[in-house]
Amino acid sequence: MKIQYHREFLKSYKKRIAPYPKLEKQFKTQLGKLLKDSNDPSLRDHKLIGKRKNFRSFSVTGDIRVVYVIVDNNIWLFDVGSHNQVY
């Protein structure tokens, strides 16, 4: 699988994750786990409902989430931030 980044994700990442090295390291760790095994329980990966019903989400930390979708064997990252920021 290949990782693709939506421009909104890049904007959110730069603002919410990149300024915090520890959080950035946790993001990279969790993304690696997603690529190896999306069923890893520490990801708390799940389908979303409502207007984002085609999307999925995984946890970086207790409150930081990444919203993504899988299209043609590519993972498109769409948003990252706290629970309230991404939902």
What would you note in describing this structure?
This protein is of the alpha+beta class and 87 residues long. It has one domain (2-86): YaeB-like fold. Helix content is 34%, strand content 31%. The chain contains three helices and five strands. The chain has helices at 7-16, 21-36, 83-86, and strands at 2-5, 46-47, 56-59, 64-71, 74-82. Strands 1-5-4-3-2 form a five-stranded mixed beta sheet. A hairpin with an 8-residue loop joins strand 2 and strand 3. The longest helix has 16 residues, at 21-36. The protein is globular. The termini are far apart.
Annotate the secondary structure layout.
Elements: E1 2-5, H1 7-16, H2 21-36, E2 46-47, E3 56-59, E4 64-71, E5 74-82, H3 83-86
Parallel strand pairs: 1-5
Antiparallel strand pairs: 2-3, 3-4, 4-5
Extract low-pLDDT stretches: none
CATH superfamily: RelE-like
Note the overall shape: globular
* Chain oligomer state: single chain
**For the CA atoms, what is the radius of gyration?**
12 Å
* Name of the CATH class: Alpha Beta
Please bin the fraction of helical residues: 25-40%
Proportion of β residues? 25-35%
Total tally of structural domains: 1
Number of strands: 5
Class from secondary-structure proportions? alpha+beta
Q: Sketch the topology as an H/E string, one letter per element.
A: EHHEEEEH
